[in-house]
């Protein structure tokens, strides 16, 4: 991440963001938490959940998905089909 923001300072993002992650060893969960904090500090209303607890995504303005990567592929058990 380059540290740049893509909106004007003081401007609220005011979007509902669903951040879903798949994590076998909880590393991706930790990264998802940090991403959620950054989005929240930017003014977004963020809900962060494990892929095993997927919710209805229709009420969100944006969905961010993160997963662990094994041998250059997303971990299939942890991926979400939206």
Describe this structure in words.
By secondary structure, the chain is an alpha/beta fold. The protein has one domain: Flavodoxin domain (Rossmann fold). The protein is 18% helix and 28% strand. It has one helix and five strands; from the N terminus they run E-H-E-E-E-E. It has one helix spanning 27-41; strands spanning 16-22, 45-50, 62-67, 69-70, 73-74. The strands form two sheets. A three-stranded parallel sheet has the order 2-1-3, covered by helices on one side. The radius of gyration is 14 Å and the shape is globular. The two termini are 26 Å apart. Residues 1-5 have low confidence and may be disordered.
Please summarize what this structure is.
By secondary structure, this protein is an alpha/beta fold.
And the CATH topology? Rossmann fold
Question: What composes the largest sheet?
Answer: 3 strands, parallel
Structural class: alpha/beta
Rounded mean pLDDT is 77
Proportion of residues in extended strands:
25-35%
Low-confidence stretches: 1-5
């Amino acid at each position: 991440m380059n540290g740049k923001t893509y909106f004007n300072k003081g401007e609220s993002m005011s979007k509902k963001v669903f951040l879903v992650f798949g994590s076998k060893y909880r590393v991706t969960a930790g990264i998802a938490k940090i991403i959620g904090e950054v989005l929240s500090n930017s003014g977004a209303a963020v809900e962060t959940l494990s892929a095993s607890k997927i919710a209805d995504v229709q009420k969100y303005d944006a969905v961010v998905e993160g997963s662990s990567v094994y041998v250059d592929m997303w971990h299939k058990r942890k991926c979400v089909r939206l």
